[in-house]
UniProtKB/TrEMBL annotation:
It comes from the Bacteria. This is Creatinine amidohydrolase. It comes from Phreatobacter oligotrophus. GO terms for molecular function: hydrolase activity, acting on carbon-nitrogen (but not peptide) bonds, in linear amides; metal ion binding. Belongs to the creatininase superfamily. Keywords: Hydrolase, Metal-binding, Zinc. Gene3D superfamilies: Creatininase.
Length: 233
């Protein structure tokens, strides 16, 4: 159930019986040969597939996030951290005003994680509300499935190469890229980071069989659905 497929009267009626909602959050940043919108595509899709059978509304994905390390890659857009925090809390304000009180944020971009602190601060001003912050790709069951298939997995590697994040007529390299030195990478400015990283893959294979990817996806959807459905205080 997507908010984009509802009108205000349907939302008003819905929240009388269920005050849960989902907000997917992603980013627009380089992902080697994959779509620049990988994080947004995946967070929105896993949220929609997870929430669908529960009839829990899913709000439109926040497609921009905090990604200052990649700004030298054309097409990457970053928000200031303060802007992202303000944007997310403004959205939460609107959701609460509409009657939602139990909100799951399905985050698809690791760089957005510092904004979770702003959500905790927001909860102090909005007593009676509950917010779960869910990094879907490294949630326990999903990440365990990734590691079971191939422990060499990273940003822009095979683990983000789903049928719906690939681009037509763009072939994935067949080799396994060596893992980069993350500690060194984090010390560098964006231009030096691009020079070190090259195409954008942090390390690992660029693609694995769709059978592997769909197995991961099934776990991710089920794990996200369980979080949306249960475990509220």
């Amino acid at each position: 159930m997507r908010i984009a497929e509802m009108n205000w009267m349907q939302v008003e009626a819905h929240v009388r019986g269920d005050d849960r909602a989902v907000l997917p959050v992603g980013s627009t940043e380089q992902h080697a040969g994959l779509s620049l919108a990988v994080d947004s595509i995946l967070s929105e899709r896993v949220a929609a597939e997870a929430a669908g059978p529960l009839a829990v509304p899913v709000f439109p994905v926040v497609s921009y996030g905090f990604t200052p390390s990649f700004v030298d890659y054309p097409g990457t857009v970053t928000l200031r951290l303060s802007t992202l925090c303000a944007l997310l809390t403004d959205i939460l304000d609107g959701m609460v005003r509409s009657g939602f009180r139990r909100i799951t944020i399905v985050n698809g971009h690791g760089g957005n994680s510092p904004a979770h602190g702003a959500i905790l601060e927001w909860l102090d001003r909005n007593r009676g509300c509950q917010v779960k912050w869910h990094n879907w790709w490294n949630a326990p069951k999903t990440f365990a499935k990734v590691q079971a298939i191939d422990p060499v997995a990273s940003h822009a590697s095979w683990m983000e190469n789903f049928p719906w994040t690939r681009l037509p007529n763009v072939a994935s390299p067949a080799h396994q890229k060596p893992m980069m030195d993350l500690a060194r990478f984090q010390q560098l400015d964006p231009g030096a980071k691009k020079a070190l990283l090259g195409d954008g893959n942090y390390g690992g294979l660029y693609q694995r069989p769709d059978e592997d990817m769909l197995a991961i996806w099934d776990v991710a959807v089920e794990e996200t659905r369980a979080l949306i459905a249960d475990g509220w205080a």
